Amino acid sequence: MYDVVKMIHSYWAYLVFIMLVVATFNALIKFFGDKEFHAVDFRISLFTLIVTHIQLLIGIVLFFTSDYLSLISDMGMGEVMKNSALRSNIIEHPFAMIVAVVFITMGYSKHKKKLTSKPKFKMLAIFYTLALILVLAKIPWNVWF
User: Fold this and answer.
1) Residue 76 and residue 90 in contact, taking contact as beta carbons nearer than 8 Å
2) Phi and psi of 26, rounded to 5°?
3) C-beta neighbour count of 107 within 10 angstroms
4) What confidence tens digit (pLDDT) does each residue in 41-92 have?
5) CA torsion angle for 104, 143, 8, 1 (degrees, to 10)?
6) What is the mean pLDDT of the chain?
């Protein structure tokens, strides 16, 4: 089961990355270009929110189907933190991605409360950009390509 979940998590990550880049640049370009907020902008931000939440759920399943918890109990948290590969996989990557999903959720929620286009794009641009930076920082690039 672990291998199947890992494969799904890896391939779904491409969709998440593409959608996050599209949504971020859409919000930035339209914010700085003083464009009107249309239904397609809403759909892009919503689809990005949905695919990132699905990826989070897949990641949680992956975490609990892996041997990470037994590694932590066998080695101890101190030893895990000393090993950069384990620390990245068990602590840093999950934490950064959870925070990125929180930023996306906050941006999406805050943009819905705004009544005009400029503030809507501003909320999306700020929070989706922060999420994109976190995702770019913690993607395991050596495994991904």
Assistant:
1) no
2) -60, -45
3) 27
4) 999 999 999 999 999 999 999 999 988 888 888 888 898 899 888 888 889 9
5) -130
6) 92
Q: How much of the chain is helix, strand and coil, in % rounded to 5?
A: 90, 0, 10
Structure token pair of residue 26: 């859409």
Confidence band, pLDDT 50/70/90 cuts, at residue 133: very high
Among residues 29, 23, 92, the alpha carbon closest in space to that of 52 is found at 23
Instruction: Encode 88-98: b = buried (16+ Cβ within 10 Å), e = exposed.
Output: ebbeebbebbe
Q: What distances in angstroms separate CA 76 from CA 58, 72, 83, 138, one per listed residue? A: 25, 5, 11, 23
Give this prediction's pTM. 0.90
| Cα(127)–Cα(17) distance, integer angstroms | 15
Q: In angstroms, rounded to a whole number, what is the distance separating the alpha carbons of residues 23 and 107?
A: 11
In sequence order, the 6+-apart residues with CB closer than 8 A to the CB of 111 are 45, 119, 120, 121, 123, 124
Cα–Cα dist 9/18, whole Å: 14
| Cα–Cα nearest to 51, from 122, 123, 100 | 100
